[in-house]
Specification:
With about 230 residues, the protein is mainly alpha-helical. The protein contains twelve helices and no strands.
Length: about 230
């Protein structure tokens, strides 16, 4: 009789394991990919200021302690987000065509990706790349491309850092207000600057930020090109 009663209890939906499955998921069902997706969704709704460990746990419907089985801090989450975004950066030109064309493709793509995530830039600029496989894969592709093009190995990382500094700064420029260089009531005191601003405006470029980026990038590529051993 006890065995029959136990069977009837389980058939009535009273199996303890079934009740656990119906509740909050355990930490075991979490993984870094799921945390990354949830973090990006939270950022899209509330911005980077809204990304906290508590908010992320709520969005995943888990206890905050469950998150700490996979990431040790918010910086770890941001590193996951960075790694996800870096995978979107186009490095396919390296090894597939001329070095300068590959650098252009990489830099333009890099800027476009991070122009959508400028609040992340000050954070990732000082985050170590250890344990970020996609970020490391990008750097490996770029470094290999520089090496194959005859760029001095001892200058390669410095060149990449210089390009990244330019790319990250340019990413902010994409979202800058159109009147950022308007001198306002002080225009008469800055005649040369104001005239240059007006001259650029007269060109009526759809995206002035692109003009500035192209100019700076070409200057960097030209300068770096002189260092190559061809």
């Amino acid at each position: 009789m006890p065995a029959v009663a136990a069977t009837q209890g389980r058939s009535a939906g009273k199996d303890p394991a079934a009740r656990r499955r119906a509740g909050r998921p355990s930490a075991a069902v979490l993984d870094k990919a799921g945390i990354t997706v949830a973090a990006l969704a939270l950022i899209s709704r509330k911005g980077y200021d809204g990304l906290t460990m508590a908010a992320l746990a709520r969005s995943l419907d888990v206890a905050p302690s469950a998150l700490y089985n996979h990431v040790s801090s918010k910086d770890d989450v941001l590193l996951l987000v960075e790694d996800h975004l870096v995978e979107m950066v186009d490095v396919s030109g390296f090894g597939a065509g001329p070095w300068d064309a590959a650098v252009r493709r990489w830099a333009w793509s890099y800027r476009e990706v991070f122009a959508q995530h400028t609040p992340l830039i000050p954070i990732i600029a000082v985050l170590p790349v250890a344990n970020a496989p996609k970020t490391l894969a990008m750097y490996e592709a770029v470094t290999a491309g520089f090496g194959a093009a005859g760029f001095p190995a001892e200058k390669t990382i410095s060149a990449i850092v210089a390009l990244e500094a330019f790319v990250f700064g340019a990413a902010y420029d994409v979202t800058a207000p159109a009147d950022i260089f308007d001198a306002g009531t002080l225009a008469a005191q800055t005649p040369n600057f104001t005239a240059a601003v007006d001259r650029l405006a007269a060109e009526q470029h759809p995206r002035p930020a692109d003009v500035a980026f192209s100019l700076g990038l070409e200057a960097l590529i030209t300068g770096f090109d002189t260092l190559r051993n061809r």
